[in-house]
Amino acid sequence: MVEKHGSNTRRAWRKLHLGVAAETGQIVASALTSKEVDDGAQVGSLLDQITGPLSSFAADGAYDQDGVYTAVTDRHPEAAVIVPPRRTAVLSDMAAIAPTPRDRHLRCIAESSRRAWEKATGYNRRAKVEAAIGRWKQVIGNGLRSRIDERRVT
């Protein structure tokens, strides 16, 4: 393979992490990583790219991690974190004394329903973001043609 093609490694998937403004559909932050990188680990670097105020951070269940909540509250203390807890999620030890936003989400879901929580928190606005990302995917296409990471990021 090396003699024929000059390389012995196969191409690997890349993940494009996007921060999109729900109101405008504009990309406000981006990161291109290898396939092994956890989605939640990229939240800090994406939030660092946002210069203006952030009113809320909405993401899917893959972002239900303590590090995500910490990264958002450290950089934008006034921002609401709207991430659905996993089905197996339990309240934290401090839920009775000082409930976290995640604890409040869990209580809301337990008291009413997941659908009611989505409506109360505005989680369904995430559909606008998903539609915007779908449009960007059509523009970008199925593959990155460049083989150099700096050009792929561009």
Description:
- The structure is a single chain.
- Helix 4 crosses helix 5.
- A hairpin with a 6-residue loop joins strand 1 (14-20) and strand 2.
- This protein has helices at residues 2-5, 43-48, 66-75, 101-111, 114-121, 126-140, 149-153, and strands spanning 14-20, 27-34, 56-58, 80-82.
- The relative contact order is 0.13.
- 38% of the residues lie in helices and 14% in strands.
- The chain is of the alpha+beta class and 154 residues long.
* Tertiary shape: elongated
Termini separation: 30 Å
Mean pLDDT: 85
Alpha carbon gyration radius: 19 Å
Number of contiguous helices: 7
Question: What layout of secondary structure does this protein have?
Answer:
Layout: H1 2-5, E1 14-20, E2 27-34, H2 43-48, E3 56-58, H3 66-75, E4 80-82, H4 101-111, H5 114-121, H6 126-140, H7 149-153
Parallel strand pairs: 3-4
Antiparallel strand pairs: 1-2
Keywords:
154 residues; 14% strand
Summarize the structure.
The chain is α+β, with helices and mostly antiparallel strands. 38% of the residues lie in helices and 14% in strands. The protein has a two-stranded antiparallel ribbon. A two-stranded parallel ribbon has the order 3-4.
